[in-house]
Amino acid sequence: MSPRSARLARLSRSVTFSACHRLHSKSLSDEENLKLFGKCNNPNGHGHNYKGRKVTPILAHGIDPVSGMVMNLTDLKEYMQEAIMEPLDHKNLDKDVPYFSEVVSTTENVAVFIWDSLQKLLPQGILYKVEVHETEQNVVVYKGEQTIVK
């Protein structure tokens, strides 16, 4: 393969943010919410130190033969600032982020929110997956193209 042939590479950059939220579904009664979400259904919400809450979007694209990069990391940092940090960092997800007024603010849905927000900014087709580490033990991976029909 010649040096000028595009080779596929995956690029990632991580950010950490702090937020609070309440796991609560408007579709369920208060009793059902408490049974399903336990202490995470506290009416006043709950927060995390989020030291372990790490978000890693992973891009997959050919390496540009001129720049030698999948994407300039400075540009990726700016996109992540706009799509992740500005709307989510130090926020009450349920009260400060309009998306979560109708969607339960689970880590799964946070990953979807981040995917959708990044998709609007990144070049089309470059976003491969989003990983959201809620804690050291809990990780959600979302690859937006897959849906389940019920």
Automatic annotation (TrEMBL):
Domain of life, per the record?
A: Eukaryota
Q: Which InterPro entries match?
A: 6-PTP_synth/QueD (IPR007115), 6-PTP_synth/QueD_sf (IPR038418), PTPS_Cys_AS (IPR022470), PTPS_His_AS (IPR022469)
Cofactors = Zn(2+)
**Could you tell me the keywords of this UniProt record?**
Lyase, Metal-binding, Tetrahydrobiopterin biosynthesis, Zinc
Q: Which GO terms describe its biological process?
A: tetrahydrobiopterin biosynthetic process
| Pfam families xref list | PTPS
Q: Which GO terms describe its molecular function?
A: 6-pyruvoyltetrahydropterin synthase activity; metal ion binding
**EC number(s) recorded for this UniProt protein:** 4.2.3.12
Please provide one cellular component term from the Gene Ontology annotations of this protein.
Answer: mitochondrion
This protein's pathway reads:
Cofactor biosynthesis; tetrahydrobiopterin biosynthesis; tetrahydrobiopterin from 7,8-dihydroneopterin triphosphate: step 1/3
Instruction: Outline what the protein does.
Output: Involved in the biosynthesis of tetrahydrobiopterin, an essential cofactor of aromatic amino acid hydroxylases. Catalyzes the transformation of 7,8-dihydroneopterin triphosphate into 6-pyruvoyl tetrahydropterin.
Protein family (similarity comment) = Belongs to the PTPS family.
Cite the PANTHER family for this sequence.
6-PYRUVOYL TETRAHYDROBIOPTERIN SYNTHASE, PYRUVOYL TETRAHYDROBIOPTERIN SYNTHASE
Any idea what this protein is called? 6-pyruvoyl tetrahydrobiopterin synthase
